[in-house]
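Protocol step 4 of 6: structure prediction from sequence.
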Amino acid sequence: MPVKNRIGDLAPEIAGWRQDFHRNPELLYEVHRTAGRVADLLRSFGCDEVATGVGRTGVVGIIRGRTDTRGRVIGLRADMDALPIHEATGAPHASTVPGVMHACGHDGHTAMLLGAAKYLAETRAFDGTVALIFQPAEEGGAGGRAMVEDGLMDRWRIDEVYGMHNMPGIPVGSFAIRPGAIMAAADQFRVTLTGKGGHAAKPHDCIDTMVVAAQAIVALQTIASRNVDPLKQVVVSVCTIESDSRAHNVIPQTVTLTGTVRTMDPDVQTFAERRVTEIVQGIAATFGATATVDYERGYPVTVNAPENTAFAAEVARAIAGRVDTDVAPMMGGEDFSFMLNARPGAYIFVGNGDTAMVHHPAYDFDDAAIPYGASWYAGIAEARLPLT
């Protein structure tokens, strides 16, 4: 079966919304223009309820079906925020905000869910209620958690929740999904090493924190290579190093390292957290330095419920025919995980074609993916809430 005809007809209009969002990107919770535009469009579609300010700047639209014999509510989620990246696409709809761009395709996710909302408000060919969830602050701000903690699931009695993300490298018109863990827990750490600074020409009078840092960076890689079962995924990456000196001839008193730990298993996550501290403090002590470790657990593992995953795949197959149901887990993090921890559901990838990878200055969402993604959102509602 092809994409829904009505959504195909709406595709140019949906692309227009997407390009407008792309020209006007906003960060984290400061998505006031985007959220306002989303709320206005939902009202114009005839949604039965439009709530703003959920989880600070989130928007929820409610559409009731022709009947409601079961009293079930399905949640469909899209994220709205952009990234602090200077755009290099050269597109006619490129960002007009210096240093901010939609480098992850959230403009496309928002537009596709709006397209599904317009279709569902027109047709209402389902038995129950659809909750359209437009979330802020996915890019590091845990907006998904904020919306859940603000009563999202209980206020609208949501039974299941579904989300989608575009994926470069997967052909347009294709989908990919898997049951179980599909995206990683994303933790972060900050290590402060303190030694004894001094003149670089007299290292014997110092405790060289740069040497300690270098040893610690290398040793942290043994968590993955020597401490964890090779069949279990873990990534430990040190991503910044900064000292309290800018001089070429000074051994710094302190050095700060920051990085991330990605895991797919809660036991591995707990083990990795402990080993980061043990390794860094042990190496520091070996050289006579001290180390403090601030370790913060971030987004949890994104886990797809098996039954919901099978439904999501069937809906995708009816639209496109091309569905990878055993895509490899990805070590990126996703705060939709907070919603999936609160309710069963599934998270799927829709193909964005041969484009730059997300979080790259040359990335752009491919508008050709709109009919597939919007049809999937609408199809989930109709498949999970069939008319009796």
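Step 5 (inspection) to follow. The mean pLDDT is 97.
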